[in-house]
Amino acid sequence: MKLSTRAVLAACAALLPYASATIFYAGVAESGGEFGAWSATSEVGTGLPGRFGTDYAFISTSGVDAMADKHKINLYRVAFLLERMCPLSYGLGARFNETHFEHFKESIDYITKKKGAYAILDPHNYMRYNNPSSQPFSGSVIGNASDLTAATTAQFGAFWGELAKRFADNEKVIFGLMNEPHDMPSSLNLANLQAAIDGIRKTGAKNLILAPGNAWSGGHYWTKGGAEANSNWIHKLVDPLKNTAIDIHEYLDEDFSGSHTECTQDPAKNLAGVTAWLKEHKLKAFITEFGGSNTTACVKMLNDLLDYMANNEEYIGWTGWAAGPFWGSYSPCCTDQRQLGSFEPGSKAADGGPSLYDTIWVPVLSKKIPSKLQWSGISSVNGGELTSR
Ligand SMILES: *[C@@H]1O[C@H](CO)[C@@H](O)[C@H](O)[C@H]1NC(C)=O
Ligand SMILES: *[C@@H]1O[C@H](CO)[C@@H](O)[C@H](O)[C@H]1NC(C)=O
Ligand SMILES: *[C@@H]1O[C@H](CO)[C@@H](O)[C@H](O)[C@H]1NC(C)=O
């Protein structure tokens, strides 16, 4: 049968229903700056300030090199701990530990200036400050007026104003306001995020901001939880520059925690609600944490999640969880059975076998890195010029 040109074009269009969707930023989360502060007995102050390079580190340059040179990623999300940037004796705010800041800046400069990629600054604090010894649950919720030991919303705004001022001249930096706020009123999450946006914009910084949802930023839960649902709150944020995107996390195991080996949660089905909300409010989103083990079901669902983001224009960026300098054979996800290593290039599983870098990053995530990404210009909800490397 001979098809007319028109019929062929129509058939192609049907196969590509979302041809306009674009991922501008793709890469990996670098976890390590928040390491070394956990205490089995919840002892306050454990690992503070910590020894840089021994208890914690932000990146390994060899790992970043491999990700950049081999896989051509243009985005790294770099975790740090608020209690190290702002020691407890200073309190949360504009006064930093300059030694700690310099180490952090060195890593961000390596990624953005040496490798030319974009970097998300990630205070890995669950909207809490003053006791990371039993993260993610310990510490006073920022802005909790009933807790005299809690840092205030204004202090959080001052902290972000200072951090933004220091990176405002680097257009490759993205301000990730907070990792996974949870178990707090959504009104307070909103107030804290607004204070941070106000603090950032007051400095003149134009960089992209990422605003996280409450309830661990779970995409599947975005429209759930009744009056507390993120879908009732987060679109109320006001950014005078309209350069704020939504920060979503989505794991694929039974309870969305990322702690189980098997993947059972269909991402397309579970993200339908938050995607509709993004569309309704004309917002863009990043999924800055997702991952899975090396089972057949996880490989399929991770592919489904990456395809879902590629096919829906609301999603413009992602970082897989996680690479980092100190994982060793430990795993950033799915550790209920055994330690499978991490996305860090060169890591190995505890049994000496291939790590998640070999079994998941290389064959699954790296295959979905678009050949063209944004490599210059300000980080933006609108993306920028797409070029290949
Ligand atoms: C600041 O950071 C450095 C390097 O980690 C550390 O040696 C020092 O004790 C810290 N200062 C405070 C006040 O935490
Ligand atoms: C705020 O602080 C009070 C007093 O310590 C505590 O009972 C309450 O649970 C805290 N609220 C949150 C959201 O943590
Ligand atoms: C996952 O990786 C580990 C470590 O290399 C290996 O022992 C295991 O057999 C792998 N599982 C699957 C389903 O491939």
Automatic annotation (TrEMBL):
Gene3D superfamilies given in the database record: Glycosidases (3.20.20.80)
GO MF entry, a single one: cellulase activity
Span of domain Glycoside hydrolase family: 46-325
Superkingdom, taxonomy of origin: Eukaryota
GO biological process: glucan catabolic process
Catalysed reaction, written as an equation: Endohydrolysis of (1->4)-beta-D-glucosidic linkages in cellulose, lichenin and cereal beta-D-glucans
InterPro entries: GH (IPR017853), Glyco_hydro_5 (IPR001547), Glyco_hydro_5_CS (IPR018087)
Uppermost EC category: hydrolase
Keywords: Glycosidase, Hydrolase, Signal
Matches recorded under PROSITE patterns: GLYCOSYL_HYDROL_F5 (PS00659)
Signal peptide per UniProt: 1-21
Keyword Signal: yes
Enzyme Commission number(s): 3.2.1.4
Coiled-coil region list: none
A Pfam family annotated for this UniProt entry: Cellulase
PANTHER family, per the entry: ENDO-BETA-1,4-GLUCANASE A, GLYCOSIDE HYDROLASE FAMILY 5 DOMAIN-CONTAINING PROTEIN
Family: Belongs to the glycosyl hydrolase 5 (cellulase A) family.
UniProt protein name: cellulase
Organism name: Immersiella caudata
